[in-house]
Specification:
Layout: H1 2-147, H2 158-245, H3 249-271, H4 279-286
Amino acid sequence: LEEFDTKIADAEKEISDAEKEIADAEKEIADAETEIADAKKKLADGEKEYNEGLDKFNTEIDKAEKEIASGERDYQDGLNKFNSEIEKAENDIRNADQQMYDSEKELSEGQKQYDEGLASYNDGKAQLETWKNELTAKQTELEYAVSQLPEGAEGMLDEAIEEINAAWMLFNTSQETLDTSFAELETARIKLETGWSQLESGKNSLENGKRELEAKKSEGLRTLEDARNKIEDGKKAAEMTELLMGTEVPPRRTFIYENANKLVDSFMVKAGMGFTIISPLYKQIYHPYSVSPFK
C-alpha cells in the first residue's frame, strides 16, 4: 500500500509538472502568437511605408522626367531662337557690308569726278589768267594808241574799243562760270569729305557689330552648352535614381558589384602601403566577388 501511495504521489507530481509544462508551452504559444501578430503588423506597416515610398519615388521620377522634357523643349526653343537671331544678325551684317561696298564704290566714282572737275577748273583758271593778261596788254596798247591820236581822229579806234570791251564782258562771264564751277566743286568736296567720314564711321560700327556678334555667339553657345550639360546631368541623375531605387534588382546588383570593386581598388591605391596589411580582410568582408558580407 505504501509502495502504491508512493507511485500515486509520483504520478500526481508528474501530472503537475506536465500541467506546468503545458501552461508554459501555452504561454510561449500565446507569446509567439503575439509576436507573430506584431510581426504581421510591422510587415503590413512596412508594406504600407514601402508602397508610400514607391508612390513618392515614382511621383518624383515622373516630376523629374517632366522637368527634363520641359528643359529639352526650352533648350530646343532657345536654340532655335538663338539660331534665328544669329542668322538675322549675320544677314544684317552682310547687307551692311554690301552697303559699305556700294557706298565706297559710289564715293570713289564721285571722288574721280571731283578730281577730274578740279583739274578742269585749274586748267580753265590758268587759261583765264592767260586771257586776262592778254586782254590787259591789248587794252594798254589800245589806250596808248588812243592817246596818240591827233585831234579830230578820236573815232578811228571805236571799233577796237568795242571789241576789247566785248572781250572783257566775255571774260567776266567766263570768270563767273568758273567761279560757279568752283563753288560746285567745293560743295562736292564737302559732300565727299562727309561721305568718306561717314563711310569710315560705318566701317568702324560694322566691325564693332561683327565683334559683338562673335561675342554674342560665344556667350550664347556657352549658355546653351551649360543648359545641355544640366539636362544631361538631370538625365543621368534620374537614371541613377531609377537604377538604385527602382524595382529592377539585377541592374542595381550589377552596378553595385562593379562600382564596389572600383571603390575598393581606388581606396587601396589611395591608402598606399600602410593599407596592405588590412586590405585582405577588407576585401574579404566587402569585395563583391569574395566571401559574402553576411558570413
